[in-house]
Amino acid sequence: MNNRFGRLTSKQNCRLNSWLDRFLDRMSKPRTDGKVDSSCFRANLLRLREVAGLSLTEATYPPDLQVPPHSHEEAHFCLLLQGRYEENCGKDLIIRKPSTLALMAGGAIHSNRIHSTGIRFFSIEMTRSWLNRAKGCLAFIRGLTQFDTGPLPWLAMRLYREFRCEDDVAPLAIEGLLLELLAGVTRQTFHSENGNAKWLSRARDFVHDRFQESISLAEVAEFAGVHPVSLARAFRRMHHCTVGEYVRKLRIEFACQKLTASDESLVEIAFSAGFSEQSHLCRTFKRLTGLTPSEYRSNSRRG
């Protein structure tokens, strides 16, 4: 593939690529001195790609690894694909689990403790020059922010699929999806910091608590204390989907976690996620992710 389209580098080739050394040096700066701690090099890089000022990587960390305090020169997103680990950043201690997304500001000091199964993750590093295109969005990247559910982890998963695709259109799709992801972060942070529509947050929390059940728009609106029409309009404006579509996404996120972390059958996963039957899960899963549940489970374990 021509370099201007963003080359996807395999594990075998990346060991011979001098860019790998520069990437590791950028990504792992120690807290106190000018040397990179050797423990930061224990990531096993599976795939690398550079696209228009973006560095995208898929990598693994071994089980039970303690990564000491360090920082990254550039801001980056991290989508956790497999495993669990602890992220300690300032006063924040977050347990990361599969299908969650984190945004880390450049220069933010943090440490990690990898759990017993090891982890596989997808990272998107954004250079300062690329972020300058976002202008006002830069002010919203501070410290560590995690997104457990909702549309942002879904966008990141779509971006990961484009990262794995080797056609000439993938770099264009990657940039577009990342801009959409950054816009979503900005919008969500703006609403949170300005205290807008607290009743909308109550409605969202109600949906998160009850997504495995059969709930109606009227029930959600009554809990939030607003008219169903007002809820429907505000919810779509905030989340870019209806309440019903949001519930389906939550159910599929739940199913993704089960498919990755357990050996439960599709029937068991379907019922526990809130679907009436396995076929309903399979149809919805395929429509939202582009994969069947079996394909997703196989891909998530193959790496």
What does this structure look like?
The strands form two sheets. Strands 1-3-4-11-6-9-12 form a seven-stranded antiparallel β-sheet. A five-stranded antiparallel β-sheet has the order 2-5-10-7-8. Helix 4 (151-164) runs antiparallel to helix 5 (170-193). The protein is built from twelve helices and twelve strands. Mean pLDDT is 78; it is low at 1-41. It has two domains: 8-193, Jelly Rolls (Sandwich), CATH 2.60.120; 198-302, Homeodomain-like (Arc Repressor Mutant, subunit A), CATH 1.10.10. Helix content is 46%, strand content 21%. By secondary structure, the protein is an alpha+beta fold.
List strands and helices in order, with pairings.
Blueprint: E1 8-9, H1 11-14, H2 18-27, E2 29-30, E3 44-51, E4 54-61, E5 66-71, E6 75-82, E7 85-89, E8 92-96, E9 101-104, E10 110-114, E11 119-126, H3 128-131, E12 144-147, H4 151-164, H5 170-193, H6 198-210, H7 217-224, H8 228-239, H9 243-261, H10 266-273, H11 278-289, H12 293-302
Antiparallel strand pairs: 1-3, 2-5, 3-4, 4-11, 5-10, 6-9, 6-11, 7-8, 7-10, 9-12
Key words describing this protein structure:
single chain; 303 residues; alpha+beta; Jelly Rolls; Arc Repressor Mutant, subunit A; 2 domains; five-stranded antiparallel beta sheet; 12 helices; 12 strands; 21% strand
Quick check: average pLDDT? 78
Unreliable stretches (pLDDT < 50, length at least 5) are 1-41
Question: In the CATH hierarchy, what is the class of the largest domain?
Answer: Mainly Beta
Order of helices and strands: EHHEEEEEEEEEEHEHHHHHHHHH
Strand order of the largest sheet: 1-3-4-11-6-9-12
Provide the gyration radius in Å.
20 Å
- Give the name of the CATH architecture of the largest domain: Sandwich
Strand content: 15-25%
Q: Going by CATH, what is the homologous superfamily of the largest domain? A: Jelly Rolls
Q: How many domain units?
A: 2
